[in-house]
Amino acid sequence: MSGTDTRAGNGTPRGGGDAAGPVADADPAAGEPTARLAQGLLSRHMTMISIGGAVGAGLFVGSGVSIRQAGPGVLIAYALTAGIVILIMRMLAEMSVTRPDTGAFAVYGRLAFGRWAGFTSGWIYWVGWPLGLCIDAIAAAQVVHGWLPALPVWPVALVLVGVVVAVNLASVRAYGEMEFWVVWVKVAVIALFIGVGIVAVAGLLPGTPAPGTGNLLGHGGLLPMGLGGVVIATSSAMFSFSGTEIVTIAAGEAQDAAAAIRKSTRTILWRVTVFYLGSLAVVVLLLPWDDAAVGQSPFAATLTHLGLHHASTVLNIVLFAAMLSTMNSQVYASSRMLFALARDRDAPSLFARISRRGAPHTAILFTASLAALCLLLQVFHPTTAFGRLVDVTGDTVYVTWIGIAAAHLVLGRHDRAEGRRPLPGTAVWLFPALTWATLLALLALYAVMIVLPESRTDAVLALALTVAVALAGLWRQRRHPDGHGARIPLSAD
């Protein structure tokens, strides 16, 4: 393990970059010129990327499932998950400021535990993205189909995939710009929703009496499903928060990675609290949690209750924007992780190629091609096995976060032993106690998923997938022990 590695996702020491395209540098491992990813992300891009990762389509859709599982106790479930997310992001921020790298947590796992850990973390993280891109493309196309019924779902889905692929191929700056403006739509509408909700809860909205605590406590109490419901809802909430780590993947292409990460980390506490807990508090205060409409679409049900006409149209626009943002980030995150794996000789070297615009074009096209294939198969030959596969790969968010916490324990201790203190605004509080607490909480939640009948199958299959990939990583490490820090020479096509 080397705690002093300062590589920046491009085979070079961290520092400034050229936003215009790849730059030739000397690779210390290979002794040959390499090309690096364009560092074109500005601070405002990084801020919106971090918000977009934290506030996805899961808030608008997945929160209804969580409310059915826990009732008003969903607030406890999301508060617990938010606490874990905040600590995970602090860990990533602390490691990313010291070692900004496109491979992010896969690189940190490699540095902490060896090549097999980076191999496992990277591939487990990547494998779910093509499936997720396929699902979100179909969902976004269904929204468009609702607006324009003459348009079939599958061609629209393919066009949407093509749009986000074109944006990512253009440049990392184009990705950042698209994310910046699309996320603004989500933020504005959520803020408006919470503002109107507060007015209604206070009894100041004409035609809507103040609900008091009747909906919060009057339908079976705060925990109608008991603590078990809270635990199950916490697992569901985990998936809503997945994507928050993308900002640290983007650090390798930021013009000032340290400043951008510190700013994102400092604001994640209020962002998560306001957007998730604030909006869900409005829902469970204004409506009974066991209302069927709340379980299906909590935001639409709330706006309908408030007598706001055309609420469904507004929410569909926001949902479409959220899905487009998610698809944009899915292409970005998956291609960068595949690029990092190839760069570190854990994936075919083909995926380490960089275009003249500084984008890993082969990794982008490969991931998008798999998503398009999955889309066509699901449209023309739908099967329940596909849904199971999506659920299994969704459970691997636990694997990613457990790996981050474990790597932070090792690298955090190493850095502190070497006298390198974390920068203000990025350090994990009470290290290593809170890192240990986060790791144990994640392991306990995953154990509960295995115990509970409704989540057992997917959790066991996800664990089996992780073990299989880890064994492949160990085998590869034994066959190529010199590959721990090796880099392949990269070429600009």
Automatic annotation (TrEMBL):
Localization in the cell: Membrane
Membrane-spanning parts: 46-67, 73-93, 105-126, 146-169, 181-205, 225-247, 268-287, 307-327, 363-380, 392-411, 423-447, 459-475
Any matching Pfam family: AA_permease
Main location: membrane
Comp. bias intervals (Low complexity): 20-30
Keywords associated with the record: Amino-acid transport, Membrane, Transmembrane, Transmembrane helix, Transport
Membrane topology reported for the UniProt record: Multi-pass membrane protein
Domain Amino acid permease/ SLC12A: 45-455
Annotated stretches, region: Disordered: 1-30
Gene3D superfamilies recorded: Amino acid/polyamine transporter I (1.20.1740.10)
PANTHER family according to UniProt: GABA PERMEASE, GAMMA-AMINOBUTYRIC ACID PERMEASE
Protein name as annotated: Amino acid permease
